[in-house]
Amino acid sequence: MSSSDGDGEDAMGARVAAVIREAMEPDAAREDAALARGEARFLRSQAAGAVEKKRRAPWAIAVVAAGLAAAALVLVLRPSSPIAFRVAGRAAASSGYVRAPLGAAPVDIVFSEGTKIVLAAGGALRVDGASAHGARVLLEDGAAHLRVNHLPGAAWQVEAGPFTVDVKGTEFDVAWSSDRQDFSVTMQSGEVVVRGPLASEGVALRGGEKLVARLPEGELRVTGAVEAAPAVSAPPPATATVAIIERGPPVIVAPSRPAPRPEPPAGDRAAEPPWSSRVAHGDFRGVLASAGERGVDDTLATAPLTDLVALADAARYGKQPDLARRALLAQRGRFAGTPEAATAAFLLGRNAEDVDGDAAAAIRDYDAYLHEAPDGPLASEALGRKMMLLRRQGRDEDAARAADEYVRRFPGGAYAGSAAKVRDGG
Amino acid sequence: MLRLAYSAEAASAAALRPAGPGPGHGGLSAAEAGAIVAGVLARDAEASRTLWCEFAPLVRRLLRRSLGPGHEIDDATQDVFCRLVRSLGGLRDPGALRSFVIGVALRVAGAELRKRHALRWFRLTPSGDVPELPNPAADHEMRAAVSRFYALLDRVGTDDRHCFVLRHLEELELADVAAALDISLATVKRRLQRVEARVAAMADADPILSEFLREHAPRWSTSLAKRVP
Which residues of chain B have a pLDDT value below 50? Predict the structure, then answer.
């Protein structure tokens, strides 16, 4: 290894060090200001040092004691770590994906705070977004029985196809068939609220009730104690046990996936780490393959935001710009208003600029980012790129306006030099 | 009392200069360094100011490069100087002031890294990750590459990380690395050999980073290709 022998130039590469150094180089004006502020602070502390030292001594024990008490409080009251779960009969599951093969026994998923899910054979679900108070469970297919421990602040959500079930503490069965587009919730106890295409306002369900939705027929029924259903306008007949609470045109929310579902390529899919983690480790092909396995359309229509972000990244880095664009558009369509959706606008701009050479589209996307995240981490780059594209299009006045804004907002930014030239007509 | 001229502009310019002797970069003569040390120990404000002016750019740059993006360095810099003032009495050779300052800065950087790991361990944030602060890299791809590079450095030990940073980012001579870390030259070489191999292998295994480096640092990529089977 030549670097350690004193010949560092080739082995570790002066260029890579230069790249990192350049990237870490601060803005000179800000650095000057920070140095000046720091100097004043240091000199103040030095001037106060002797006095503070004498005065601090009597307080030292109290301060240390308070610190220890605070640390103890933090340990007791800190937002506890996300609840953990394990799949019965297996080692602790590091991934959220659980599948119960057809013909096999149901799979028990046990959470650290006492909640238990039994996934029926043939089902597949993903435990996603676990927090200290609950988790989001994405029922991809099949049926599951949930017994959610009713603890203070409990916050659980089950997503099944286009439906969501908000849960505090209860026991119920939930089923979703992506092929038939059927959804049902059967309550044993407690209360949940179901939202979805035929229940946009939310339908509250209590113990003994059952909700069945058939999307192709545009039908949603609640059976059992119908008085609990808020959408029922007329009192039901005394003997009625069935009420159609809403009927609309057929709704198809996502294309059916081919059946039977393809088997995982190898091993147990429950052992798969989350997509974001796989992308972080460079497993782009694996994520793209998993998306293909789940069905790209289905993934784009139903995957949680974290998976969509990971899929877009995997597609970008995996040189699949069309899929990247679709994943970014899905983020913007399904999760509008989130920081991820704003970032997706920026990345769509990059895609339009670099892949399609479509400057007009790129400018629109950069504008969208700047509108949604005016102080976002990519604002400087979005404005700089927009300015350069405007100039390339010959829109000198617009470019000059953008340059003026850039110089005003980001005087030390990467495009500051170019902006000054553009503004001055250079 | 020794008085070295100072301006923020000069300090900033000094920070950009490569390591080595020279004004504004800790390139003081032993006599000048001795005067500063004596003055600071005697609580002379002018000496404290000179100490700051002479070494703050170096300390800030070192902290920035050691810790990577996402770290607030203002407080860490103050911490370095407070520790420095407290420990200057133990400096036997004023001529070694620069190495001494670097050593203190690296100890503070190490403490910051441990704190970060502890925060992650205690999961004081929902994801267990510490929220990221702005990354100075302007370009989106460069920002991603730099973040991944430092994520990779997070996976090597603190001592090895310091060696790597001093040698490759600060471009110190091996002897200066040894002096700053207070270890032998042989140990520096051994650590560098270990950390370079590890960093090279990890960078090569990272598709984003390796592609970025292929594009921006082809010589390094070539050397990677030779080194990583």
Answer: 1-26, 123-134, 221-229
Q: How confident is the model at residue A399 (pLDDT cuts 50, 70, 90)?
A: very high
Q: Which of residues 82-111 of B touch A (CB under 8 A)?
A: 82, 85
DSSP A278-316: HHHTT-HHHHHHHHHHH-HHHHHHHS-HHHHHHHHHHHH
Q: What's the complex ipTM?
A: 0.74
Whether the CB of B136 is below 8 Å from some CB of chain A: the reply is yes
| pLDDT for res B144 | 77
Residue A75: how many CB atoms within 10 A of its CB?
Answer: 10
User: What CATH number was assigned to the domain covering residues A85-240?
Assistant: 2.60.120.1440
Q: How far apart are CA A37 and CA A35, in angstroms?
A: 5
Q: List Cβ neighbours of A186 (8 Å cut-off, separation of 6 or more).
A: A172, A173, A174, A209, A210
B49-62 burial: b if 16+ Cβ within 10 Å, else e: bbbbbbbbbbbbbb
CB neighbourhood size of A393 (10 A):
13
For chain B, strand residue ranges (E) read: none
- What is the CATH number assigned to the segment(s) A275-423? 1.25.40.10
Task: With beta carbons less than 8 A apart as the criterion, state whether B61 and B73 touch.
Answer: no
A67 and A82 in contact (C-beta within 8 Å)? no
In chain A, which residues have their Cβ closer than 8 Å to the Cβ of B48? 42-43, 46
**Burial grade of A45 (CB within 10 A; 0-12, 13-18, 19 or more):** middle
| Tally of residues, chain B | 229
Q: Provide the residue ranges of all domains of chain A, joining segments of one domain with +.
A: 3-77, 85-240, 275-423
